[in-house]
Amino acid sequence: MIGLVIVSHSARLAEGVRELVEQVVQGGAAIATAGGTEIPDAPIGTDPAKVAAAIESLLIRPEVSDVLVLMDLGSAIMSAEAAFELLPEAMRSRVHLCEAPLVEGALAAAVRAKIGGSLAEVYAEAREALAPKIEQLASWQHLLPAPVPAAETTFEQAGGEVVELTIVVPNQLGLHARPAARLVTLVAQYDAQVTITHQGRTVPATSLNQLVTLGVRQHDVLVVRASGPEADAAIAAIEALALDNLGDPIEVTEPTEIIAAAVSEENNVVVGVPASEGIAVGPAFHLRAPTIEVEEHIVTDTAKERQRLREAVAAVMEQLRTLRAETSRRVGAAEAGIFDAQILMIGDRELLDTAEEAIELRRLDAASAWNLALSAIVARYRALNDPYLARRAEDVLDAGQRVLRHLVGVPADTLLFDPPEPAILVAADLRPSDVARLPAERVLGIITAEGGPTGHGAILARSLGIPAVTGIGAAAMTIPDGQIVGLDGSAGHVWLAPDPQTIEQLRNRRERWLAERSELRKRAQGVARLRSGETVEVAANINLPDELEAALLNGAEGVGLFRTEFLYFEREAPPSEEEQLAIYRDAARRLKGKPLVIRTLDVGGDKSLPYLRQPHEPNPFLGQRGLRYCLDHPGLFRPQMRAILRAAADYPIRVMFPMVSRWEELVMVDALIDEICAELQAEGLAFDEDLQRGVMIETPSAVLIADHLARLVDFFSIGTNDLAQYIMAADRDNAAVANLVNPYQPAVLRAIRETVEAGHANGIKVSLCGEMAGDLKATALLIGLGIDALSMTPTAIPIVKERIRRLELTEAKRIAAMVLEMSSAEEIEAYLAEIEDTDVAKMESES
């Protein structure tokens, strides 16, 4: 028999429905209710625990095979979804939520269940329960205005015509978090109301969580409707985004999701999911997040709790922006995109409304209300049929638990992973923010109980070159700290308790793997010399001195960009002069005579520091950032310049200024440095009076006056990330135009050429330190344009050096000349990719 659970905000309403149903069917129905709350002062509401108890009360009855849950509205649906997560695993497959009308649906379902209807029949009967009423009242329709489709009612109220667009989803992974985030961000730019309809379900295009939980797969059809003053523009922008593969790369390199648990334990080998290639063997050490105790409290000041919740969400959004910036610079912008999605996930209006409703109606404290709403949305994600989309539940949970930690007073990034020696990290699962903050040099490998290769934690592990196996099940949590374990990230094998012979074999295999990986690194220790004899300096971009070991290991010939703003993050106040002096000296000492280029503080744009109390700016990328900010805040700038000048007395340190747009700015900097030098001399402190100075070329104005700037500095460094953004007049965080922010745009390449010519005409070297520097297909082009040095993410250095050694200068110049004649970024990238593919094939055939 099929059992029924009635979920309602009102206990009396739920009991009334049950009484009516039982009277109609005259016995033989298995029905339970979960109405209202147990809070005397706030009885109207729903409780997931109460719903779960009602479901269990039916499932333990031998005659009940499955349970259909019917709900009235709003948080009742959320509570039912959350209740699903509270049930024992074995029961979940027997529970089904139904969107049928509460009273009519319950009656129709009960009648069908009584006569032995199957689950499908009972479900269908409940959903069709309104049909008789609709038919009976058909004769009254002539007295009413013509019905308006639900999805268009809002448009009618908003005024204006409804503009419609049909999209066939091109993405291999469907409408997952990152393309959905781009869509939400895009829609927010327009004064229009936009909805997305998929298989009969319509959701607002401003809700990331509702978009992702549509479960849209590749080749599914979406109907987009827009109304309002800018409806046409919104539809046009959405169409352009769809034609651009919703911002995703055409070729998806992420491995297909593999559903695999611990299926074999022969010889102590557990089979999981290959997540990141490589061999690791060593002591296990568990990653432990602080326990979040959420004790439910009834509050009287609901306005105060709503404000607490909003402040917590805002604070976590700022944390995620910081993580996005750090991750983008550490492993690349594509991998950092998950944090943009997480920002939208926790700011989702539906999620916030559900939590605030729990505060108002049930008088719950902010933490309990947020926990309730979060559990429900996570349950909805996990219920999706597509495994890849279902895994996004962990991304929501990761961001949502940050809010919870903020509300209960647990530090944002408290993670207990401090092994006494390098170890294999063991965890239930890895979330993006976990991996982004891991001390990579202490992690030999990663083993998780849950997860798959398309989880963003796994993606970041691959970017960092850490072997990983995910999804081995409960076996992971039984491994004691200190026990020697092994893993093969390519095969998905984990050795839980290997014998001495197996340990030795794994160590030998790891050595061979490391040897293969290090062969490129060994060759990278030499200079990058073209076949025609010219050399190109290849340096590393770093955020913190701890990254220098990896940079040198990968063959960095110095640091071409030390982003000092990361010294200012996650603090209550800026670092002092003495603190910075120690850091700069430490970094230079580790480089052992190789040059260190320190970029002065670059805040503003997408990088803010709460303790500086920077005013809100409508367009921060065009506001107070970089050198502009520092010149206007000498109290912040002077200590940094003093520290750099003092550190340069003993080491080959250069300074570089970001976001220069005027000649006068350099004149002001020179005057300030002269003042500081006089101060240091008067204080008897050593400093470098001949400190080499450079500027970042990342604004169109800097390109146009590069010949003037070159007379005041010792070198140029081109920052292609910002240069592309400003030349193309396109915000890289705006999904509608983000595709324009491409360093291969002809205008950007011509700006690079002009900068090189201006620098060389004045006898100074020109380097390039944007993401383009580490893009293999750009190597020949940049050398052909005359770039003297490249600075990039450390892991890209070995392969870029190999590419340089296979080039001749005349060939590179020919490629650059061809590219400069081309008229579009697409044509340029296709041409360069073809050249790169040919070179790789040739290299493989020779080896």
UniProtKB/TrEMBL annotation:
Subcellular location, record wording: Cytoplasm
Record-level Gene Ontology MF annotations: metal ion binding; phosphoenolpyruvate-glycerone phosphotransferase activity; phosphoenolpyruvate-protein phosphotransferase activity
InterPro entries with a match to the protein in the record: DhaM_N (IPR012844), HPr-like (IPR000032), HPr-like_sf (IPR035895), PEP-util_enz_mobile_dom (IPR008279), PEP-utilizing_PTS_enzyme (IPR050499), PEP_util_C (IPR000121), PEP_util_CS (IPR023151), Phosphohistidine_dom_sf (IPR036637)
Domain PTS EIIA type-4: 1-134
EC number from the UniProt entry: 2.7.1.121, 2.7.3.9
Catalytic activity: L-histidyl-[protein] + phosphoenolpyruvate = N(pros)-phospho-L-histidyl-[protein] + pyruvate; dihydroxyacetone + phosphoenolpyruvate = dihydroxyacetone phosphate + pyruvate
SUPFAM superfamilies in UniProt: Enzyme I of the PEP:sugar phosphotransferase system HPr-binding (sub)domain, HPr-like, Phosphoenolpyruvate/pyruvate domain, Phosphohistidine domain, PTS system fructose IIA component-like
Function, as annotated: Component of the dihydroxyacetone kinase complex, which is responsible for the phosphoenolpyruvate (PEP)-dependent phosphorylation of dihydroxyacetone. DhaM serves as the phosphoryl donor. Is phosphorylated by phosphoenolpyruvate in an EI- and HPr-dependent reaction, and a phosphorelay system on histidine residues finally leads to phosphoryl transfer to DhaL and dihydroxyacetone. General (non sugar-specific) component of the phosphoenolpyruvate-dependent sugar phosphotransferase system (sugar PTS). This major carbohydrate active-transport system catalyzes the phosphorylation of incoming sugar substrates concomitantly with their translocation across the cell membrane. The phosphoryl group from phosphoenolpyruvate (PEP) is transferred to the phosphoryl carrier protein HPr by enzyme I. Phospho-HPr then transfers it to the PTS EIIA domain.
Record's protein name: Phosphocarrier protein HPr
